Amino acid sequence: MAHVTSIGLDVHARSIKGCAFNPFTGEVERKTFGYEPAEVASWILSFEAPKAVYESGVTGFHLQRELASLGVDCVIGAVSKMDKPAADKRKKTDKRDAAFLARQLALGTVTEVHVPDPGCEAGHDVSRALDDARDEVTACKQRLSKFLLRYGHVYDEVNERGQRKSTWTKAHWEWIESIEMAEPAAQEALDYYIDRCKRAIDDKKTLEAKVKSHASEERWKEAVDALRCLKGVDVVTAFALVVETDGFSRFRNASAYSSWLGLTPSEHSSGEGRHRGGITKAGNKHLRKLLVEAAWHYASASRKEKARAKDQVVAPEVRRHAAKGVRRLVDRRADMLDGGKKSVVANCATARELACWIWAIGCMVEAA
What we know:
Nucleotidyltransferase, domain 5; 7 strands; about 10% strand; about 375 residues; five-stranded mixed beta sheet; about 50% helix; 3 domains
């Protein structure tokens, strides 16, 4: 049944501004609430055949789930797909935003955001927490190394072949811990940076173990094992791809999936001229980063099929398709480099094609 009353909700942490619009009668009604889903639902259900919408953002999916449980048809609109009139861009109030959303819903121009179930969102959150932990490790190492640099301490050890030794190894940590600062305050600062760095590394390892444990759960294992057949995709990356995508078959084709990731070329064409630029970056930033990192493996990978792990269970047809993908990606990467493409450009192109193979394998698993 088509809705009659369109309701826009401008949602904030402590308040919600509502605007109900009936396009058939032209009636408009407004109301302000605290963050009380039950009160909002009661007001919405007082209208004829209502449907509500609010913008995607930091408030997440909680309100939508609460309203749905109370019998309200509520969707979340993709804020990146909403085009406001130029005249309204310098006139922003909660009242105007709610009215704008109600009008867009009435016109049918709202692009709905996919709402994952709580279990999928939880997996998504633990995956992102691990990404934050990795960033924290990098930041802590940077602070420690630059603190030592300011005092003239630079790790410059070489091996017997004259090659400079790698940093953040056991030998490097022994060198760091052997340093003694002349001033007590400086020593206290060094001790803090060392301790913070080690804590961050331990936190990252703990989260990695938890993510791998969740990846082995029955709901995720089949798809995770299938995606691990592609080189550059380990358990952590595969789990992130599965929980963030929440159903590969909801995308009509591989191009739609790569577009959702922001891995398609930007374009500025008019008349007879056609100009393409870098990738749009208008999509899932977390997965795009993981795929770009994974694509670097194909710069030096062989065309051989990826070896299967002991705990990995994959259907033969999926393994064959993944092996075909590996060969294709290795060859395409080599052809682009031989053709004079910059390595970073070739890598982004490889990441886009890798996303297409991931979509295909994900769909195969879901169809099984």
